Amino acid sequence: MPLLLRHPSSLEHDTGPGHPERADRIRAIDAELESGGMLGWEVQEAPAASEEQLLRVHPAAYVERVREMSARSAPFDLDTPTSPGSYEAALRAAGGACALVDALLQGGERTGFSVLRPPGHHSEWERAMGFCLFSTVAIAARHALDGLGAERVLVLDWDVHHGNGTNTIFHESPEVLFASIHQYPFWPGTGALGDVGSGAGEGYSFNLPVPAGTGEAAFLSLVEHVVAPAARRYRPDLILISAGFDAHRDDPLGGLVLDTESYGKLARQVRSLGEELGAPVGAVLEGGYDLQALAESVAATMSGLAGDEPAPQAVTVDPLAEAALEVLGRYWDS
Ligand SMILES: [Zn+2]
What we know:
about 325 residues; alpha/beta; globular; binds zinc ion
């Protein structure tokens, strides 16, 4: 049975009045899923990340800083406030993603979703930013690699913002193939197509920027024509999705125009790729700030990950995919 990781501490990370990354996001998702009988998924309480799991990515002094700043509700920056509940929430968000990886690589599960907050993909080794405290997906990927013996992890980040934290953390590593589809130019400013990674990781960062107004056809083509062919050569042991839902057309922060069902289609593409490669697929919640679009898109993603509908085909190669292949084809013949 697919696994859904949650924890009440997600409601105790208080970002203050008017902040888009708020506890109501989790309440909206809960209401949507509970009305649908949790879609038949097994709900599990997220454990706190262990010190060992956190320290594979973040220095001990940074972890302590998050704890200490949270205790006194000190903000890291204007976007990234904390409250006394923030440290525990961030620990559970990272721990839930690691528990999901345990279930996928050791428990025989094929898919699952860690639906906790705060999000993580903007957090760098020792820098909180963009609503993110710990780099949750990076911690989960390192747990798979260092804790469970995986050799290669594919991370697909479909949040509207570039996943600068995950990208930076694995920039020089071929152990993670990081693929991000994001609005560009846009906050945080990183993620240009020409940034392909560095050192031993050169060619393992797929930054796939798309202009404002981009919709489903380009996303499906980028996955089918750019990410999937590389994944077939890369043969990941695990696929993680940094699942933000702020590329939805109703999102107040993003400028892209995905529909709710676009996320179902993307999830089916990734599920189908995972089945083909024998790699389980886990999703981890990132952004998404229109409550209804967020809740319905999470449900559409879960249905796509767990269902048996065939993957949609992107019939034509989008010009954005052609441009990406020109750059990345130097590293991956396709
Ligand atoms: Zn985002």
